[in-house]
UniProtKB/TrEMBL annotation:
Residues 20-210 form the Macro domain. It comes from Dillenia turbinata. This is Macro domain.
Length: 212
């Protein structure tokens, strides 16, 4: 099979390496899955239509974790743009499992796709909701001709999703999406992960699920 796993030379030098590893998705699509350590607010792909995915909440007006860091880095125009996203019911601009897009404003990435993962302990179907959050983010990326998209580990911070279960859903959902859109999916998918713990879980899960 064409699934490849490679550690670029720079990643083996140690020091400031971001540990970038790359996997092929569907053998018939050109899409790839890359996993690295890092701060998602700094991520971009030069000269492309790119988007980072914000693990937001249903109000979409900012918060802690990655959401807080993204709002801080994007600047106050982001809050205004989010405020203008229509409410689907009072206080809810993006229901759990759905996704919305805004410009990136002061971020290096050109767009932000806001999605809302499940609160692990209170969602009635956390697996379904997390799957929807990834799938709808990819769908919005595709509809907007985004060539490169970067995710964090949605729901793995404040929302308390166990890392191993979340990694299984993240990797398998992205792979399924690539298979569903074989000939058309040309969106390259990145994970930019803050902690070594989560990075290791994600790399091991991608090896397990994508290399056979
Ligand atoms: N770059 C990459 N990853 C990050 C960064 C960063 N700058 N900052 C945090 N992470 P979380 P959730 C990682 O809590 O669980 C907010 O208040 C973090 O280590 O950001 O979906 C929202 O407003 C973790 O692995 O998102 C919501 O109310 C991952 O990003 C709520 O938190 C996700 O953690 C959403 O909670």
């Amino acid at each position: 099979r064409s699934h490849c796993f490679s550690i670029p030379a720079a990643a083996m030098d140690g020091g400031s390496s971001n540990g970038l590893v790359s996997f092929a998705l569907s053998p018939t699509s050109t899409a790839s899955l890359k996993i690295q350590r890092g701060d998602i607010t700094q991520w971009f792909v030069d000269g492309s239509s790119d988007a980072i995915v914000n693990p937001a909440n249903e109000r979409m007006l900012g918060g802690g974790g990655a959401d807080g860091a993204i709002h801080k880095a994007a600047g106050p125009e982001l809050r205004t743009a989010c405020y203008d996203v229509p409410e689907v019911r009072p206080g809810v601009r993006c229901p759990t499992g759905e996704a919305r897009i805004t410009p990136g404003f002061k971020l290096p990435a050109s767009h932000i796709i806001h999605t809302v993962g499940p609160v692990y302990d209170t969602d009635s179907n956390p697996e379904g909701s997390l799957r929807s959050a990834y799938r709808n983010s990819l769908r919005v990326a595709k509809e907007n001709n985004i060539q490169y998209i970067a995710f964090t580990a949605i729901s793995c911070g404040v929302y308390g999703y166990p890392f191993d279960e979340a990694a299984t859903i993240a990797v398998s959902t992205i792979n399924e999406f690539a298979n569903d859109f074989k000939e058309v999916l040309s969106t390259h998918v990145h994970f930019v992960l803050f902690s070594d713990d989560i990075y290791n879980v994600w790399v091991n899960k991608a090896r397990e699920l994508l290399q056979n």
